[in-house]
Each structure stands twice: as C-alpha cells, then as structure tokens.
Design brief:
The protein is of the alpha/beta class. It has nine helices and nine strands. The strands form two sheets. The chain has a six-stranded mixed beta sheet, with helices on both faces. A three-stranded antiparallel beta sheet has the order 7-8-9, with helices on both faces. Helix 1 links the parallel strand 1 and strand 2. Helix 1 crosses helix 7, helix 3 packs parallel to helix 4 and helix 5 packs across helix 6. The longest helix is centred in the C-terminal third of the chain and has 17 residues. The two termini are about 20 Å apart. The model has no long low-confidence stretch (mean pLDDT about 90).
C-alpha cells in the first residue's frame, strides 16, 4: 500500500476554516495523509482573530524534525510564519531534509489590508524560502509586497510572476480574487508559458480560508504525484466547489465547504 503524505507548516485556526485545520481537511479529501507543524495557536472564529499565541522556534523545529526523522513527506506547504526567525528556521529544515514539493502560501496581508509580516520577515521570505519553492500562491496584494509592483492588470501580474521566478520559485499562481474583473482569473506561470484559469465570481461573504485551502489542494495533489499544472487545476476546481456550496455557519465571514468537491463526484 502506498501512502502519499502531505505536511502543513502553519498556524492553527480554532474556528476550523483556515490554517492547519483547513489544510488537513483538504489533504484528507484529496487522499493524502496529513501531518502538521504548528507555528502559532490562534483564537478565532468567523468574526475575527481574538488572540495569537506563537509557538517557540524550538517547538516548531522539533515538530518538523519529528516528521523528517520518521515519516517524511511527499509534499509540504507553508502558511502563517509571521517572523523572520520562523521563516529562517523553517527554510533551514526544508533544506536539511531536501524536500522539493514545497508550496508557499505567503500569508502576509489580512483581509482588511493590514500587514501581517514585518519588512524583515518579507526579506527572509524572499531570500530564504522562495528559493526552495516549487510554487508560490500569492493574492494580488501579497504579490505587490513581494515584487514592489503596483498590480492593476494581467500584464502586471505576468511581470510579477517573472520577478518571483527570478527570486528562485519554480512556478507561481497569482490569484485573482482581489481584482475588480467580473470573472476570477488565476494566473499560472511555470517559467515557460502563462495560463489563465478562469471561473465565475461567486457572490458570498463566506470565503474564510480560501487561500489556505487552495494551496493545500495543490500540496495534496503534488503528494499524489500530479504534475504542477494538473495540481493547480484541481486546486482551482476544489476551491470553486468549496465556495459555491457554502456552509453558512457563523455570524461573520464563514468557512468554505471542504467536502463539496468530493460530494460532487469531481475528484480525479
């Protein structure tokens, strides 16, 4: 029996919509065995984040080593890393174990527009983590921070994608949810060609955890042996189903539906 394994290095969301909870649900739905290294515990729900309690660097490294020394992983993703020290420690461990299928969700801009990473942490991401990355999945505000570009068009996103590959990433998906276009266009670039992945824009406030879930779906499918392009396409389908078939729970920005994709019979 072959067991495909996926690791998430991210924060915990007590409300279950984002972070490692979203990642592990997504891994399970796509047939990958999920593991985690928690970088911070958050007290949050659909109304917001009510507390953040970071895990020590030693605690994060010990969790990663527990995986690396025994189970190993076929793919991994990073989510909320929040400081240069955490980014450097995580990058060093990824390099140490020689893990290649690295998916980076550069969590740095809150939905309200507030920066979640200080400048030194952004520099550490550029210098330490992105060069280890198989694919990076920024939204438009995050891509702007990473590339120092103002992004208002698809051409701007193409230029930002080229810059991210120059930093060392092997491929990039710049997500289009923050654009003003009628449809959502996610731009995929693998260094050879650009592909526009288009889907209808869904009118709903229940989008908490979409970035985590999208990157987790890519990670699971890389662990399952799919090509990068096919993993990205599946992730797009997975998150579209999760948003369309919303759960409608909570009083604020609710979570997506992680089991919608399989209930539709869309699993490859």
């Amino acid at each position: 029996m072959t067991v495909n394994k996926a690791l998430t290095i991210a924060g915990s969301d007590s409300g279950g919509g984002a972070g490692i909870q979203a990642d592990l649900k997504t891994f399970q739905e796509l047939g990958a065995y999920g593991m985690s290294a928690i970088t911070a515990v958050t007290a949050q729900n659909t109304l917001g984040v009510h507390g953040v309690y970071p895990v020590s660097i030693e605690g994060i490294v010990k969790q990663i080593d527990a995986i690396g020394e025994d189970l190993g992983t076929d793919a991994l993703k990073t989510g909320m890393l929040f400081s240069s020290e955490v980014i450097e420690a995580v990058s060093e461990r990824i390099h140490h174990y020689g893990w290649k299928n690295v998916v980076v969700d550069p969590v740095m801009i809150a939905k309200g527009g507030a920066k979640l990473l200080q400048d030194e942490a952004v520099r550490a991401m550029k210098e330490k983590l992105i060069p280890l990355t198989a694919v990076i999945t920024p939204n438009i505000p995050e891509a702007e921070v990473l590339t120092d570009l103002k992004i208002t068009s698809l051409d701007d996103r193409r230029e930002a994608s080229r810059i991210l590959l120059e930093m060392g990433a092997k491929s990039v998906v710049i997500k289009g949810g923050h654009a003003d276009d009628g449809e959502v266009v996610d731009l995929f670039y693998d260094g050879k060609s650009f592909e526009e992945l288009v889907s209808p824009r869904i009118d709903t406030p229940h989008t908490h955890g979409t970035g985590c879930t999208f990157s987790a779906a890519i990670t699971a499918q890389l662990a399952n042996g799919l090509t990068m392009r096919d993993a990205v396409v599946t992730a797009k389908e997975f998150i579209r189903a999760a948003i369309e078939d919303g759960l409608g729970i909570g009083e604020g920005h609710g979570p997506t539906n992680h089991w919608a994709y399989n209930k539709r019979g869309e699993k490859r």
